[in-house]
Design brief:
Elements lengths: L8 H11 L6 E2 H8 L3 H13 L3 E5 L4 H4 L5 E5 L1 H16 L14
């Protein structure tokens, strides 16, 4: 099934960031800032989400010389992606928070 995506913490971060404005286009640097993920983690996730049909992508149509930068690739959740992302992030929010156990250091 195309919508089968393993929902890792990193994938949850990307989906949550995109859901902040589900109807908007998002670009890589923006998503990296919102999620705290490096490009080497972010772009493979976006590719998996695109292959699953959760995200669509398009290149920005600009004159790179006039803008002084290369065109951006924009990513947007598809309607299926919005439904699945909403479900995935709702599951995350319903899970109890993990508690960290700190081990005491013993001085010998």
């Amino acid at each position: 099934m195309a919508s089968d995506i393993r929902i890792t913490v990193a994938v949850e971060r990307v989906l949550a960031a995109m859901l902040t404005d589900a109807d908007a286009d998002h670009y890589g640097l923006e998503l990296m800032k919102l999620t705290g993920l490096a490009s080497g983690s972010l772009y493979p996730i976006l590719l998996r989400l695109r292959k699953a049909g959760w995200v669509e992508a398009r290149w920005e149509e600009i004159d790179p010389v006039a803008e002084g930068r290369p065109p951006r690739r924009y990513y947007r959740l598809t309607p299926e992606g919005v439904r699945n992302a909403t479900r995935a992030t709702a599951k995350r929010e319903s899970r109890p928070a993990r508690t960290e156990t700190k081990l005491a250091r013993v001085a010998w």
